[in-house]
Amino acid sequence: MTTFTGLTFGGKVWTPKFLQAIDITRCIGCGRCLKTCGRDVMALGALNEEGEFVDNEEDDEIERKVMTIANADNCIGCEACARVCPKNCQTHTELALVGA
User: Fold this and answer.
1) Of 6, 7, 53, 81, which is the most buried if we count CB atoms within 10 A?
2) pTM exceeding the 0.90 threshold for the entire prediction
3) CB atoms inside a 10 Å sphere around CB 66
4) Angle, CA of 89, 76 and 74, to the nearest 5°
């Protein structure tokens, strides 16, 4: 499998890993990843007691808040979100080049 790679400013080969999933059972909704990411990849979502996502407007149903992937296509693969996450709940993967 051939993967997408780039170069750092210093000329070293770098393989970006893109956000694929967030484990909501581990996420504590602290927002560190959201604040770190400048690409609007994630959003804060609200869960009810059954673990279903609800509108933030329905405050009486909200049990807790967790991060969700809002705009996966905006991810640049820097993994800054994973470096600040205290619960290590993001999954990142390399991008396979199609037809390579």
Assistant:
1) 81
2) no
3) 21
4) 90
Residue pair 22/66 in contact (Cβ under 8 Å)? The answer is: yes
What does each C-alpha distance from 93 to 7, 9, 45 come to in angstroms? 18, 22, 23
What is the residue range of 37's domain? 6-94
Do the domain assignments include residue 12? Answer: yes
pLDDT in tens, 36-90: 999 999 999 999 988 889 887 667 788 899 999 999 999 999 999 999 999 999 9
Per-residue confidence at 100, pLDDT binned at 50, 70, 90?
Answer: low
Provide the 3-class DSSP secondary structure of residue 13: strand
